[in-house]
From TrEMBL:
Superkingdom of origin: Bacteria
Protein name: Uncharacterized protein
Alphabetical UniProt keywords: Membrane, Transmembrane, Transmembrane helix
Membrane spanning residue stretches: 46-72, 84-101, 107-125, 137-154
Organism: Bacillus norwichensis
């Protein structure tokens, strides 16, 4: 009965150690990742990366880390009972397994750091038993409190995202391969000149449909060799989304010339 009670106590300690380690580890990795996704909303970046690391690291630490730790604790009692630093060192050695598996030094260092933290927290819980251990439980509140402070501070100090402008919408629409045959300007305005024997005007326009949502229209007119024509391609563009609204008119005949020569003599664009 006593053995069963001791085993339950050990499992409880390993679970607490896992939670403490995962929380501290995710806090550190979240802090390292600040700014990876750009200068805006750094607080949300920090929380997002911390949460992601926590979701991955907690199961790994709970299963792999705890099983290794239980085995090392058994080995310590049997062969090196008084050598606490060897117990910690062996945790670090086994923590490098991910780096050896994937042949990545960075993974090895991360695993070793997490294993070292795990071993130190585990030793701390062993030394502080009973009522003393309850005080140690407040360690778990430290990363949670630091995360909250960091999130609020980083969000408050991060620069505001600039508004999405129609000029930016034009540049997005101008990257679409669907109009690759043309050489429309990637900014609002127009260019005039000649393509082979045709007088050509290519115009880029943009109008706001609603807040930060724009209609971008590329219009091409031409005349020459007794022919005239108009072709237009339009897009609805938002900051993270754009969709073609189709094409009207006919494709200019010079698009099919293998020896296409362009010469632009006049260009007028919005600054």
């Amino acid at each position: 009965m006593r053995t069963e009670s001791n085993f339950t106590e050990v499992l409880k300690r390993k679970l607490l150690t896992t939670v403490f380690t995962a929380l501290f580890f995710s806090l550190v990795m979240g802090a390292i990742s600040i700014g990876v996704d750009g200068p805006y909303h750094k607080g949300n970046q920090f929380i997002g990366w911390s949460y992601g690391v926590l979701m991955y690291s907690c199961p790994i630490i709970l299963v792999y880390g705890s099983l290794i730790s239980l085995a090392l604790e058994h080995a310590q009692k049997k062969w090196f009972k008084e050598n606490q630093w060897l117990y910690v060192l062996l945790h670090v050695v086994f923590g490098s397994a991910s780096g050896l598996l994937f042949q990545q030094v960075g993974f090895a260092i991360i695993g070793m750091a997490a294993a070292l933290l795990y071993a130190l927290i585990d030793r701390l819980l062993i030394v502080n038993k009973g009522s003393k251990r309850k005080k140690i439980y407040f360690i778990a509140l430290i990363p949670l409190l630091l995360s909250l402070i960091a999130w609020v501070t980083l969000e408050y100090t991060s620069p505001k995202i600039p508004p999405f402008t129609k000029e930016a919408a034009v540049k997005i629409a101008a990257t679409d391969e669907g109009r690759a045959l043309g050489t429309f300007p990637d900014k609002i305005g127009q260019r005039e000149g000649t393509i082979n024997d045709y007088r050509v005007t290519m115009k880029t326009e943009a109008s706001e449909l609603e807040k930060e949502k724009y209609l971008v229209v590329f219009t091409e007119t031409w005349e020459g060799n007794g022919e005239t024509g108009v072709r237009s391609v339009s897009y609805v563009v938002e900051e993270n989304y754009f969709q073609s609204q189709g094409e009207e008119g006919t494709v200019p005949p010079y698009y099919f010339d293998s020896d296409r020569k362009e010469q632009w003599t006049n260009q007028t664009f919005d600054e």
